[in-house]
Amino acid sequence: MGNSPRDSEILPPPPGAWGAGLRLVERMRAPVERFVAVEAASGIVLFAAAAVALIWANSAWQPLYAALWHTPIGFRIGPWSMERDLHFWINDGLMALFFFVVGLEIRREMHQGELSEVRRAALPLVAALGGMLVPALIYLGLNQGRASAVGWGVPMATDIAFAVGVLALLGRRVGAGMRILLLALAVIDDVGAILVIAIFYSGGIQLLGLGVFAGGVGLVFALQALGVRAIGVYVAPALLMWGGAYGAGLHPTLAGVALGLLTPVRAWLGRERFASRAETVQQSAGREDLDEHQLLSHLDQIDFARREAVSPLERVLHALHGWVAFGVLPLFALANAGVTLDAADFSGDGTRVFLGIVLGLVVGKPLGILGLSWCAARLKVVVLPRLLGFQHIGLVGGVAGIGFTMALFIAELAFPKGALLQTAKLAIIVASALAAGLSLALGRSLLRAREVPLPEADAELG
Length: 462
Fold this sequence. Notes:
two-stranded antiparallel sheet, Na+/H+ antiporter like fold, mainly alpha
């Protein structure tokens, strides 16, 4: 949410506006803006959506819950039509926006963030690898040789919104180093999850669809070569990539990741040229002899300068982040976290699925992250940042065990509709709640409100 002119100066209501109604809207908006500004806000909304889904799916209105997500939605263009249920459009359509944002964040980190240098990326890379491998091995150890072994990718995932929210609840106990490590680790974790989905949880490759996808990618490169910077123009190739991925047998959300990785990371004007250009245009626009048509021409120049002061990546990320965090992800949780408890099956493979996911996330994540980081530090492969000790890395491993969004997504791909899927979803919810609760308790007992230098932290990354 952006700031209105009221934030810097007192203005009368817009022409034609009802003053009393406008003041009411302002009073209602203020607490919403304060809530959204809280670091844990997106995690709180996600948790609320999951709680609503779980209660709804186990209430007297459960048939309504099930019927809602099976509502058919489609469109027709001449002889060609496509109709799928609402659940499909959320998981395969809207979630492409989420993966697009993930792709943008990965691209930014590779350009100028924690993944831009080998030295800075070493610790989160090692930690993320441990946090993916150990949970998968724990799950496979319990399910090897069974049909349920297909779910090995589920406990590999980390939900960054929930994880950051839990760290935020620890307040001053958590320093910048922990947040940076968690964010970098989560980005690498997302890369791993994307590769797992692409390689192991997509169907057989269809060449025609792959050709359409490649055509969409080629169109993106062509538009960039022509200097097209208007974001809306890229909607057409994005749809081509999405449709091509779907037709090729890949999961269509991978098109979002690909488009995010292709988004330019350099600004055209930059800050200094923006300031100079805006000052020149402002002086010209201030002339009293300008009519409204001429003024609009100057405003167009200011709008261009404002738009190109930052990179397309930052501009799109700024525009979409709130919609994804407070819209797409809660809607996904509402559609997928509604586990009917009596539909979960703990007989046979069900118990192994449940234990594999819970132990993988709650035990495997922190064990893998802390264990591999400790080994790498002892072998001098990585150096811990200043003010960051192994108790901090262990706590990051604990919150990384909150696998909610991505774990639910992979479970939907791994298991067929039925009892095992319901059991897997219940395990993800239980494990995420346990990981969050244990991390909060350990954080309050292990970390002090003000951090002091630690003996093992002898160098600073970045």
